[in-house]
From TrEMBL:
Family: Belongs to the glycerate kinase type-1 family.
Keywords noted in UniProt: Kinase, Transferase
Signal peptide limits: none
MF terms (GO), sorted A to Z: kinase activity
Database matches in Pfam families: Gly_kinase (PF02595)
Protein name per its UniProtKB record: Glycerate kinase
Length: 361
């Protein structure tokens, strides 16, 4: 039997590459003769560069960039056939802020990565957006490229309070002639009820009573830059980094579709008898451009069944089918929450071995 294994990361425990390897390890315990095609996936968030590097190689350039709270952090730029891939989470991810200090956290390091890609000769730069701990509307990124204002642009949303003017011309000139693409699963605009602050601010440590004021700061940022672009789908991705990419003349593409095309997911699904996907928590939000939904849609187009392995499964059978998934299985149901968190790879491998008994013929 031919099985394609195409999971996302298991947030906080396993990268997508590690998750695919764990599933394969467990599957082979029960079905050693099955042919497994490992296709770890990403929607643009953490693991974006690793997934693409695993899929088609390329050259990784090491970089040291500004972190969200002013410290230096390690990152990498992936170069492949004239395109550079950068991962915003490496420079301003939630894991770097610990879910706090979003009022002062900056995206300046993402701008540093763009300059590293430019200096390496890239004519096209794809920016993976997701998993950020920042909420500065992308102002820090633009500051790294040379944008200026009458208030500091690289001090988080608190630094933008009272901003009266901004000059984006130097930032646009810095990347002139380079094609920019934002890879993101988020459709949110920059501001408003469904914007970056209201939707994702709480998970970054912003208190409920802080949200209106911070959203107001980004409203002013939008007015001074480009109000129309701030309303575009994806402008609110990664705390407003999507808006910054749009301001630089870039465009937004769904991250899962971009990665699926890069790894030739459709052809690989057609060559399989079964498609296996997964993520840390499989719930109905997975429909919003997340990896399991994208993989399941690809499997459906290929007329192949798709199942999901997850840390937790938080949807019923009806919702599961709406997501295009035949069945979903959780490690916490098999080994319990404590062991699932203490040994995520081993738990996932054990689950995969159990599932293989049902699905491998």
């Amino acid at each position: 039997m031919r099985v394609m294994v195409a999971p996302d990361k298991f947030a906080g425990t396993l990268t997508a590459v590690e998750a695919a390897e764990a599933i394969a390890t467990g599957w082979r315990r029960h079905a050693p003769d099955d042919v497994l095609d490992l296709a770890p996936m990403s929607d643009g968030g953490p693991g974006f560069v690793d997934v693409l590097h695993a899929a088609h190689g390329g050259h990784l350039l090491a970089a040291t960039v500004a972190g969200p709270l002013g410290e230096e952090v390690p990152a990498a730029v992936l170069l492949h056939d004239g395109t550079a891939y950068v991962e915003s989470a490496q420079a301003c991810g939630l894991h770097l802020t610990g879910g706090r200090a979003a009022r002062a956290a900056t995206t300046r390091g993402v701008g540093d990565l763009l300059l590293r890609a430019r200096d390496a000769g890239a004519r096209r730069i794809v920016v993976g957006l997701g998993g950020s701990g920042t909420n500065d509307g992308g102002a820090g990124l633009l500051a790294a490229l040379g944008a200026t204002g009458d208030r500091p642009l690289d001090a988080g949303p608190d630094g933008l309070a009272g901003l009266g003017s901004v000059d984006l011309a130097p930032a646009r000139a810095a990347l002139a002639g380079i094609e920019l693409v934002a890879a993101s699963d988020v459709d949110s605009p920059l501001t408003g009820l469904f914007g970056a602050t209201k939707t994702f601010g709480p998970q970054k440590g912003l208190a409920e009573d802080e949200l209106p004021a911070i959203d107001g700061v980004l409203e002013r940022w939008a007015e001074l830059t480009d109000r129309r672009l701030s309303l575009e789908k994806g402008a609110g991705a990664a705390g407003g980094l999507g808006h910054a990419v749009l301001l630089l003349g870039g465009r937004r593409e769904p991250g899962i579709e971009l990665v699926a095309a890069a790894v030739d997911l459709a052809a690989r699904a057609r060559a399989a008898d079964l498609v296996v996907t997964g993520e840390g928590a499989f719930d109905f939000s997975s429909r919003a451009g997340k990896v399991p939904y994208g993989v399941a849609a690809t499997a459906e187009q290929a007329l192949r069944p798709c199942i999901a392995l997850a840390g937790r499964v938080l949807v019923g059978a009806r919702e599961m089918r709406a997501l295009g998934v035949e069945s979903a299985y959780a490690t916490v149901d098999l080994v319990g929450e404590e062991r699932s968190l203490a040994d995520p790879a081993g738990s996932l491998a054990e689950l995969a071995a159990r599932v293989a008994r049902t699905w491998s013929r």
